[in-house]
Specification:
The chain is of the alpha/beta class. Helices cover about 45% and strands about 20% of the residues.
Length: about 210
């Protein structure tokens, strides 16, 4: 009943996951950000346990072997992953935690932690997504076309998620995600077991049944 929620926010590249996540955390400072583990060296100003859990390659490989990661991937020669222990400890403390992650990573998390709340962030339209990617001014046309192709493939995986939120405006998207969190906290499953135990103490056993 008092366990926190794991909110997994995902969606195609360019949809605005990072911006929405940052605004949501600003509005809800009690929402804990899921800190990733990485083998890359800390940059100036970064702190262990705040920006990342900095690990050696041997330590990271040990985490993989112990199934201590909900998901992981290698990018540009370094490993990145989501530590299971940090997530589970935070939830046990009754705190909600948000994990902002790419689609493939989110699906890996769902395999190991299906009780999470999986939210897919959608663009208002593919034309709008193309405009956002093109507006960066940092990619070639071939790269833009590839990113759009990948985005279409990722949006076809929407059925794996619990909720879809259109990011037409950042404040609207944040309001919708906050509403999802409220609804999830009110789900009957979060109350049934504890309520059943209390009823057993107050009422005759034959009048109480847990379904």
């Amino acid at each position: 009943m008092n366990k926190g929620l794991l909110i997994v926010l995902s969606g195609p590249s360019g949809v605005g996951k990072g911006t929405v996540c940052a605004e949501l955390r600003k509005r809800h400072p009690e929402l804990i950000y899921s800190v990733s583990a990485t083998t890359r060296a800390p940059r100036e100003g970064e702190r262990d346990g705040v920006n990342y859990f900095f690990k050696s390659r041997d330590e990271f490989q040990d985490m993989i072997a112990r199934d201590a990661l909900l998901e992981y991937a290698e990018y540009v020669g370094n490993f990145y992953g989501t530590p299971r222990e940090f997530v589970e400890r935070t939830l046990a403390e009754g705190k909600d935690i948000i994990l902002e992650i790419e689609v493939q990573g989110a699906l890996k998390v769902k395999e190991k932690f299906p009780e999470g709340v999986f939210v897919f962030l959608l663009p208002p339209s593919l034309n709008e997504l193309k405009a956002r990617i093109t507006g960066r001014g940092t990619e070639t046309q071939a790269t833009i076309n590839h990113r759009l192709s990948v985005a279409v493939e990722e949006m076809n995986l929407l059925y794996h998620y619990d909720y879809a939120v259109v990011n037409d405006r950042i404040d609207n998207a944040c309001d919708r995600i906050a509403a999802i969190m409220t609804a999830e906290h009110c789900k009957r499953e979060r109350f049934l077991h504890e309520l059943f135990q209390e009823l057993k103490e107050l009422a005759p056993a034959e009048n109480v049944s847990e379904r």
